[in-house]
């Protein structure tokens, strides 16, 4: 116990790494327990009226999700055609990439609670979330100006794979304990200031690769895209270029370097700050600023393009996003207004009867409710 009390938060953060299997198994058993009793509750509700409630529930869920997923995937497969598409179509494509980015980050955030990938007490889902979402952010920067990017297909594929790989490399580096250099060589370097005295560790190799890759994106790839944007006439309003493209670029340019900076001082990295409680808080705030700012600027780009060139924005042709249609049905007061007058006289009378309950006094309410006394309910 005295040994444990002598450790700071950073040292405890690393020392508790071997407890990962216990945390993961505890979370898994809690989820199994939750699903088990959810199944029992479902059986109680459906009784014997539904022979296979799990299969029926899955099919119901699939029928609701499939239209959205099909719409999204059909659009995603058009990425090779983006250089031939107008700006409005490219903005629509990037908006759908943003949907995937936000959902992936939400998935990583919620499932981090279960600690299934907290290997060595390092949140692996955080890094997997970065690897997926940051790749999509880089892809959006290319797609928005696709007609003016040389070697478009090579550029977008390589930057997505490159971004994904170096962030996974950063996760690997975080799993290693210790410093970037061996302690003895670091002490010798502080005395001699000779670079040849430094002996790099496995952690130092992984983090060094990650840092160089991030520097390449910030100092080569993104300035190259800015050059393509200005060369195509982006310094003035252009009907085939997003006017606020640079805002989107800066949302990445100025926030991404903050992540390794925070990593360096946090308990997950070099432990400059001994307080491990601030570790996750810092990463969460940076995530909201970076990806939240990126998404807001992406929405502003779409709104600005529709305002400047409304004649170039494609019309819906009577079609509507599946999810929008479903949500509008359940929007406050909208569903009732939509149904009255469209379902026939019997349905209209039923809706009006429901509306009258509670407004005609207790005697009238009792009379209206008496008509449905013998009807079986879901819960009986």
TrEMBL record:
Keywords: Membrane, Transmembrane, Transmembrane helix. The chain crosses the membrane at residues 20-42, 97-117, 129-149, 156-173, 205-232, 244-265, 280-299. This is Uncharacterized protein. SUPFAM superfamilies: Family A G protein-coupled receptor-like (SSF81321).
């Amino acid at each position: 116990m005295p040994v444990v009390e002598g450790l700071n938060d950073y040292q405890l953060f690393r020392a508790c790494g071997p407890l990962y299997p216990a945390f993961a198994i505890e979370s898994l058993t809690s989820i199994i327990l939750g699903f088990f009793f959810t199944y029992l509750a479902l059986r109680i509700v459906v009784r014997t009226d539904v022979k296979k409630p799990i299969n029926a529930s899955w099919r119901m869920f699939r029928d609701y999700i499939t239209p959205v997923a099909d719409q999204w995937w059909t659009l995603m497969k058009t990425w090779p055609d983006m250089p031939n598409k107008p700006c409005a179509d490219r903005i629509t494509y990037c908006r759908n990439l943003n949907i995937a980015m936000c959902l992936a980050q939400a998935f990583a955030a919620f499932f981090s609670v279960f600690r299934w990938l907290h290997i060595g007490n390092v949140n692996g889902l955080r890094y997997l979330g970065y690897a997926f979402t940051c790749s999509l952010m880089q892809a959006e920067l290319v797609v928005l100006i696709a007609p003016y990017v040389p070697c478009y297909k090579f550029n977008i594929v390589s930057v997505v794979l490159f971004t994904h790989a170096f962030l996974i490399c950063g996760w690997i580096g975080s799993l290693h304990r210790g410093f970037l250099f061996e302690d003895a060589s670091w002490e010798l370097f502080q005395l001699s200031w000779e670079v040849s005295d430094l002996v790099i560790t496995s952690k130092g190799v992984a983090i060094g690769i990650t840092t160089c890759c991030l520097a390449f994106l910030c100092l080569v790839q993104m300035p190259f895209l800015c050059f393509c944007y200005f060369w195509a006439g982006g310094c003035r309003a252009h009907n085939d270029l997003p006017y606020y493209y640079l805002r989107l670029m800066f949302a990445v340019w100025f926030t991404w370097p903050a992540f390794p900076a925070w990593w360096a001082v946090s308990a997950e990295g070099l432990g400059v700050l001994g307080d491990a409680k601030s570790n996750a808080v810092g990463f969460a705030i940076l995530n909201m600023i970076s990806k939240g700012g990126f998404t807001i600027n992406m929405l502003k780009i779409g709104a600005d393009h529709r305002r400047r060139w409304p004649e170039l924005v494609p019309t819906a042709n009577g079609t509507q996003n599946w999810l929008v249609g479903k949500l509008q049905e359940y929007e406050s007061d909208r569903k009732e207004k939509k149904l009255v007058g469209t379902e026939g006289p019997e349905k209209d009378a039923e809706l009006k009867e429901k509306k009258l309950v509670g407004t005609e006094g207790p005697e009238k309410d009792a009379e209206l409710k008496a008509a449905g006394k013998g009807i079986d309910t879901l819960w009986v």
